[in-house]
Amino acid sequence: MLKGSAKIIDFVRRGARGGVFACRAHYHFQVGFKECVCLRDGGQKRKVTGGQNPRAPLFQVHELKEDIVKADVNGISINYEVSGSEGKPWITFAHALCNNLTLWDEQAEMLKDDYRVLRYDHRGLGQSSAPEGPYTFPMIIDDALALMDHVGVDKTHWCGLSIGGMMGYGLAQDHGDRMLSLTACDSRPDAPPDYQDYFQHRIDVAAAEGMEGLVESTISRWFTPDSVEANIPVLDKVRAMIRSTDQTGHAGCCQALKTLSFGSRLGEISVPTMIIGGAKDKGAPPEALAEAAAAIPGAKHVVVPDAGHISNLENPADFNAALKGFLGSL
């Protein structure tokens, strides 16, 4: 396991001729490789030096995130982050296709005082390993369980968006003893023929044009026309995540999505469940999510207004209110 801290830092590098270069970047320091000391809310100012190189830049750390680590499970390396309050109930956030754990930044911050928060990058996505596919839902669900075991999570609230919520259906059906609740966000439980065709199309476009060929069509599918026209700030974050997605990992996940088939067993889910999605979600429309919620005993269905497929980013105020309200009711 690699362990270290991810830090958002401002740094100054002194050039050989006296020049000074100011930058802002995200760094991951491995234990034993860097001397990692930091500035915390008016605390003592200290410096970070780079390894054994006497000419390494000097860094001043201004803001910290919790530990990010990598776990070797199921023959792959999974990138994950733990934050929040020790001793509190766990909540695990699982992101969408072509996303990474930063999808949940705002929600992790919102819940940090009341929960121990686990976020991670799925197999094939983010900074986790991207082996050759195809991937399957049993495979990626087993990754989640192995990571939970690795971290020491006995039971957790599960909040997943798109493929992350679909995994939640499978977890709740076969591993309900590991779950405190399920929040499935913009996540349909089945794959009709047009849905299967869409993910094969994504594989084909990426093979021909690379991930860049999917950026704008994905943005148009995931967000409402008003948000796309206004080019709201979160769109650039999502564009960057799509571009950085490993093509092999993307194809593997798309193969799994083509086999989505949790609909027939929704009635077996017994954990408290909320299914939430954008009012204008093209991939998981409200009527499909309402039907799924009706099949789960006691499930709650919430429609997020003025939002498409990535409802937690497009309308965070209404999404966050619903999530916090649901968790608080348990």
Provide structural commentary.
This protein is of the alpha/beta class and 330 residues long. It folds into two domains: 2-65, no CATH class; 74-194 and 246-328, Rossmann fold (3-Layer(aba) Sandwich). The protein contains eleven helices and ten strands. Strands 2-1-3-4-6-5-7-8-9-10 form a ten-stranded mixed sheet, with helices on both faces. The protein is globular and about 45 Å long.
Radius of gyration: 21 Å
The DSSP helix count reads 11
- Give the spatial strand order of the biggest sheet: 2-1-3-4-6-5-7-8-9-10
Biggest sheet overview? 10 strands, mixed
- Specify the helix fraction band: 25-40%
What CATH architecture of the largest domain do you see?
A: 3-Layer(aba) Sandwich
Class by helix and strand content?
alpha/beta
- Gap between N and C termini, in Å? 34 Å
Q: In what range is the share of β-strand residues?
A: 25-35%
Sequence stretches where pLDDT stays below 50 over 5 or more residues: 1-66
Give the topology string: H per helix, E per strand: EEEEEHEHEHEHHHHHEHEHH
